[in-house]
Structure formats: structure tokens, C-alpha cells
């Protein structure tokens, strides 16, 4: 049997590192950083990590709201959404994630677009 994406990304430890880098990237990305000005970075990192852990086949640790509820009324543009994907790709590369896994992660993230952009 093949490994889950969770396992191929390094389990909880690997995914936590990726999620931390994603949030750090968001905080310095001029396209979206203002969206995070009044946010608690540690809480964002925890939420991102647990969402990602659960969503990639790991333990059911995410206790937050669904993507639509989390982004409703934020009026996130397509450009902002692409900036998020760019930040995720940088984090994956920074954590030496393989090409196949990068593609899988980006596919999953992009599949949530309709629950995030202009909702």
C-alpha cells in the first residue's frame, strides 16, 4: 500500500514546519500581508497545521470552521488567492518537498478556490 500524503510530507512534524513557513510567507507577502495585520501568528500557524494534517490523511486534529465559513465576507480576490498558492509553493520548496507532493498539495489548495475567492 502506498503512503498517504500526510506520511510523504513528514507527518505532523513535517506538515507543521510547512504550515509555519506558509504563514511566515503570508506575513511578508505585500499582496496579502495586510489581511493578517491583526492576527495572532501562532494561532494561524496552529490552525494551518492542524487543517493540513487532517486534510492530508493524518489524525483528525482540525477543530476549526470549514473554508467557506472562514472566508465568508472577506471578498478575497483571485490575485490574493494566487499569492497564497505562491506562498505555499515557496514553503513546500523550502521544506524540500518532492515535485509530486507539491503538485498534490497545490491541487488540493486550488480545489478550495470556490470556497475562498469572492465569497
UniProtKB/TrEMBL annotation:
InterPro entries xrefs: Globin-like_sf, Globin/Proto, Hemoglobin_trunc
GO molecular function: heme binding; metal ion binding; oxygen binding
UniProt keywords, alphabetically: Heme, Iron, Metal-binding, Transport
CDD domains: TrHb1_N (cd00454)
Name of a matching Pfam family: Bac_globin
Gene3D superfamilies for the chain: Globins
Ligand binding (heme): 71
Record-given protein name: Group 1 truncated hemoglobin
Organism annotation: Sedimenticola selenatireducens
Lineage, broadest ranks: Bacteria, Pseudomonadati, Pseudomonadota, Gammaproteobacteria, Chromatiales
